[in-house]
Structure to design on (576 residues):
């Protein structure tokens, strides 16, 4: 493979252990980089803070789904049962909230669950068929015993040599430039 | 495994003389209510029943909580398990407080009136179950069983404090398994006896679960408030941590939803089927001023706690969790009042002072007994092998 013809995707660095990874992540954050991510075989306590991650907006997406379900269910039932096709069911009122509650509840939960699942996938930019990081052979260690930081070339501050130096200063055991496949 | 490090003092301070004042308040409250007996004895028994079922529900919720913690080998709850253990340890004393109700059966329960039964084929059909002798026998069985379970779970746990014998955990689990089974049956029948049989024509098969759901939701509120009381007196501040309050808040939230689910299930089926002898029970309770109580507890123990406790943040804020706990307990009392009182005052809502004095009286005794037992032993099961993980939880 000819490295000259490829576009740089970013720089990947490996660290020895979770603690060094957290330290590296916080120093990457302090240096002002935005487009970076960390990879480890297991969740690491304190990583969100080190990376300066904001609270996930997923909760608001779920709330949106839940409210859509609730209002949708109520609107449908009030419209159908109250106006469009009113039926006398054992003398109860046409618009009858106690009876609407189960369906409202079900639809609220259903759309909230859809919003959770699909919102989570969208926020993780999934499904994604290929990630240039997979071009790096070592990267498969991320699901075994490797602790990686990757700074993307799309970052405004990105300069290959500067990034490599930053990783070196933080004690990376292995640094590698990642290229796009094409 | 190294011994868990506890920095707090584990003995309830002897200078905190809360037991005496609680017993004092309780005695005064009960005496005042006792005076009420001579003024209006029907009212006396109904008020007493409301308060009695309120505090019994807390002890019953505690018993269930302790058994579940043992069966699931829960680590998180080890630091605070002594509190519910203590609440359920004195059923054998608390059981004595049902005796006034046995003398008031004629006032409380329509089915004890021989002439009414003679004229009513439905009550005749229920007579093999709903009769005075069997009622009293059942109460003895309930309290004997609960006393046995509560006292055993408490005393074996205390024994582990002293001997450090981890084998006792197996014993506690073996008690909890069958205990849970018999608990479920007796709790259901106790709720049928105490509250449901006030309207002997009406029945709801979910009623036992309904009373349980109310009790268990209320229990978490009580646990949270007891912990805040201890914290206010600088007790266990480093042992029971904010993360435990968060967990209790999560469970309180969960059982708020469970309660609402059960209470609404009972309502919806009766509402939907629209069978007169069933709906009349709700009709009495949703008119004459009682509908305001229903709205109060609908918001007080479901809507408001649900909305407040839904996000993650508020569940770890003591002030928020504490306020919600108070609201839930007030609603719990209001709901029990709403269940019981329409039988007496079926013409309309009318609050009698005896309801308040009997609540203060039985509350003083119930909490006095709690602190009396609580200070006899360590406030934390110190030799529980799960304690270390409970202390270090995040």
């Amino acid at each position: 493979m000819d490295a000259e013809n490829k576009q740089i995707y970013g720089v990947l660095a490996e660290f020895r252990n979770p603690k060094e990874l957290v330290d590296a992540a916080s120093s990457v954050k302090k240096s002002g980089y935005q487009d970076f991510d960390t990879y480890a075989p297991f969740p690491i306590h304190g990583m969100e803070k080190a990376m300066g991650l904001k609270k996930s907006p997923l909760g608001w997406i779920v709330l949106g789904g839940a409210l859509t379900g609730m209002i949708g269910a109520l609107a449908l039932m009030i419209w159908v049962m109250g106006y469009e096709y009113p039926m006398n069911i054992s003398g109860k009122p046409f618009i009858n909230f106690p009876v609407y509650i189960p369906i409202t509840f079900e639809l609220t939960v259903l759309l909230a669950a859809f919003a959770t699942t699909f919102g989570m996938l969208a926020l993780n930019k999934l499904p994604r068929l290929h990630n240039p990081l997979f071009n790096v052979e070592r990267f498969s260690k991320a699901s075994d015993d490797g602790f990686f930081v990757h700074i993307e070339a799309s970052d405004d501050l990105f300069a290959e040599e500067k990034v490599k130096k930053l990783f070196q200063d933080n004690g990376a055991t292995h640094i590698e430039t990642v290229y796009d496949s094409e | 495994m190294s011994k868990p490090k506890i920095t707090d003092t584990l003995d309830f301070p002897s200078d905190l003389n809360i037991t005496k004042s609680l017993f004092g308040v309780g005695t005064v409250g009960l005496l005042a209510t006792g005076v009420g007996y001579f003024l209006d004895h029907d009212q006396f028994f109904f008020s007493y029943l409301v308060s009695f079922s309120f505090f019994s529900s807390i002890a019953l919720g505690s018993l269930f909580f302790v058994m579940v913690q043992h069966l699931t080998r829960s680590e998180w709850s080890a630091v605070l398990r002594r509190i519910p253990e203590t609440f359920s340890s004195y059923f054998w004393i608390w059981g004595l407080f049902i005796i006034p109700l046995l003398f008031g059966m004629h006032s409380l329960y329509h089915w004890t009136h021989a002439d009414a039964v003679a004229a009513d084929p439905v009550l005749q059909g229920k007579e093999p179950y709903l009769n005075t002798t069997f009622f009293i026998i059942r109460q003895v069985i309930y309290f004997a069983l609960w006393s046995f379970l509560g006292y055993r779970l408490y005393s074996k746990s205390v024994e582990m404090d002293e001997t450090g014998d981890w084998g006792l955990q197996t014993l506690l689990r073996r008690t909890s398994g069958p205990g849970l089974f018999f608990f479920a049956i007796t709790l259901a029948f106790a709720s049928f006896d105490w509250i449901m049989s006030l309207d002997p024509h009406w029945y709801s098969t979910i009623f036992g679960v309904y009373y349980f759901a109310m009790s268990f939701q209320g229990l978490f509120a009580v646990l949270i408030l007891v912990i805040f009381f201890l914290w206010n007196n600088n007790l266990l501040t480093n042992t029971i941590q904010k993360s435990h309050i968060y967990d209790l808040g999560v469970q309180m939230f969960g059982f708020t939803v469970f309660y609402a689910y059960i209470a609404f299930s009972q309502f919806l089926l009766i509402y939907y089927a629209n069978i007169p002898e069933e709906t009349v029970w709700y009709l009495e309770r949703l008119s004459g001023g009682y509908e305001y109580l229903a709205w109060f507890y609908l918001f007080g123990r479901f809507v408001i706690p649900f909305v407040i406790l839904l996000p993650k943040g508020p569940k770890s804020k003591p002030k928020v969790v504490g306020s919600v706990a108070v609201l839930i307990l007030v609603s719990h009392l209001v709901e029990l009042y709403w269940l019981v009182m329409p039988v007496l005052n079926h013409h309309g809502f009318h609050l009698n002072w005896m309801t308040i004095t009997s609540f203060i009286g039985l509350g003083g005794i119930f909490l006095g007994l709690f602190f009396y037992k609580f200070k006899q032993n360590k406030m934390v099961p110190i030799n529980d092998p799960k304690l270390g993980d409970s202390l270090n939880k995040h």
Q: What stands out?
A: Residues 23 and 171 of chain A are 10 Å apart (CA to CA). Chain A is about 45% helix and 15% strand.
